[in-house]
Amino acid sequence: MRSNGASALLNAFQGLKISACTPLRQLRAPIQHQSKVLSAALLQNGRAFSTSPAMMGTWLEPSLNRKKKMAKGRPRVATGGSTKGTTVIWGDYGLRMVDHHRRISAKSLKMAEDTIKVRLRGEKYRLYKRKCCNVGVYVSGNEMRMGKGKGSFDHWATRMAVSQVLFEIKGRIHEQIVRDAFRLAGNKLPGQWEFVKKGDAPVVGITKLDGITLEDLKRPRKQLAPQELIEVSTSTTTAEVGSTSTPPSS
């Protein structure tokens, strides 16, 4: 009886026996393969910047201390050979300032953005903002009482330099529709604006590098005479200075 009971108990334990577990390397292999495929796809279709939304603040109102006084400042106009911010980078079309540098308030930027979105309603596109409002404007002058101090906070603004791109658009959308949207947005913004496309020539100050290079701009504008003419003129001047005229004999 005991032998039969022991065999039955042994058979029951053998039925509950767990199958041999697979090695950890075999379990990690498909996971590593999937991760390599995913990383390759991300590198192939990845973007040049992070697309994660900002946790604090927006492009119209940053997460900065309003009580801290800020300098008024002026937009820096790149005239020493820099073309930063004057070409379309991420999108296919852009809106660029052409007249003069200035400060643009967040209210004007929001109005221009809403105008573009209303005009392009129903289209498949993506709008890129190249500037952010990180300058605090404070009430001063005749808008406050006389005395010391800079005044209270009024609104956020951004410094917009001449020939800089403000908006960019990319998507399956016709060029004329984008032109019309940017035209309406430019009417809501101060200053004069132009429509640019990806691949257009960059700008240094107000000079477009269309057919010329930075080296051509850095060369002296005064045309120098050839070396042969300089030598001839130098020898002629020396002869005239060293020559003596004798009066005719009577």
Automatic annotation (TrEMBL):
Q: Which residues form the signal peptide?
A: none
**What Gene Ontology cellular-component terms does the record carry?**
mitochondrial large ribosomal subunit
Which InterPro entries does the entry link to?
Ribosomal_uL16, Ribosomal_uL16_bact-type, Ribosomal_uL16_CS, Ribosomal_uL16_dom, Ribosomal_uL16_sf
Q: Which UniProt keywords apply?
A: Ribonucleoprotein, Ribosomal protein
Q: Name one GO molecular function term.
A: structural constituent of ribosome
SUPFAM superfamilies, per the entry = Ribosomal protein L16p/L10e (SSF54686)
Kindly state a single biological-process term from the GO annotations of this entry: mitochondrial translation
Polar residues bias spans: 232-250
Region annotated Disordered, chain positions: 225-250
Bilayer-crossing regions: none
Tell me which family the UniProt entry assigns to this protein.
Answer: Belongs to the universal ribosomal protein uL16 family.
**This chain belongs to which protein, by name?**
Ribosomal protein L10e/L16 domain-containing protein
Recorded source organism is: Trichoderma semiorbis
Q: What is the lineage of its organism?
A: Eukaryota, Fungi, Dikarya, Ascomycota, Pezizomycotina
